[in-house]
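Quick one: structure for this chain?
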Amino acid sequence: MIQDNEKPELWQENLEKARHHFKVADHMAYVTFTILKENRLMVKILSEIAMSLNYLIKAILQYEYSFKRVSLYKDPYLNLKTFKEKIAPKYLTRDEINVLIKIIEIEKKHELSSLEFVKKEKFVILIGDKYETLTIERIKEFMSTLKRLLVKFNFN
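Got it. Here's what it folds into:
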């Protein structure tokens, strides 16, 4: 039983949630997708990657906030801006930051998409007047970057 003074900090809980969603995405990409070969799974895998990333960003922001290095806001867009401008450059390469932003953009635009379809080995999403194409290789690249970040931000 956890006592009050042993209660894990909020950033630790979010880091654990990030790891959980990453494990789900990893299993889906490397086991379930391999067995079923169902291209529509790519969107679900992307969703799990995005949730993992979301919790990881929350954990990092809360960790930095606990040392009074940043301010937190009720507006998630301001928090994301704080992460991109103040935290990410200290820890991440420009390529890693770009991958994170791309994951967030694709997931957000997917929610707003009016059309999506499977074509051969690709999952295509219509975003405005442009198409975004997902392949399992691209999903695995996203996962590889996210895995490196989970290792980098292992504060425990």
